[in-house]
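Summary of Year 1 activities. Much of the first year was spent building the evaluation harness for sequence design. The harness presents a backbone, in tokenized form, and records the residue chosen at every position. We chose the following record to illustrate the format because it has been used consistently in internal testing since the harness was completed.
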């Protein structure tokens, strides 16, 4: 997994780390400020980064199903806002 993460662009690496290795409930406003992007852009950018990570994992021989990721949701992640956001 770390090898795949290291193979995607640095912006995506840092964004995914902030979203998934930070607080249990990511604060899109704070993350947006940290990365200089609008809070409502964090979700769509996150989805593009997750697709890049998935592609990197596949290049390394991992299948989405072996990682517990349903193929359809991996290919077309939703762009909804974080829980509790309006």
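For this record, the design step produced the sequence shown next.
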């Amino acid at each position: 997994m770390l090898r795949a993460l290291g193979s995607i662009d640095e912006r995506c690496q840092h964004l995914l780390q902030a979203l998934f290795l930070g607080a249990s409930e990511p604060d899109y406003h704070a993350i947006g400020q940290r990365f200089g992007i609008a809070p409502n852009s964090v979700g769509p950018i996150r989805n593009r980064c997750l697709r890049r990570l998935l592609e990197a994992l596949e290049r390394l021989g991992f299948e989405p199903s072996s990682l517990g990721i349903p193929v359809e949701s991996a290919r077309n992640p939703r762009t909804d806002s974080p829980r509790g956001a309006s």
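The two ends are 32 Å apart (CA to CA). Quantitative recovery figures across the full test set are reported in Table 2.
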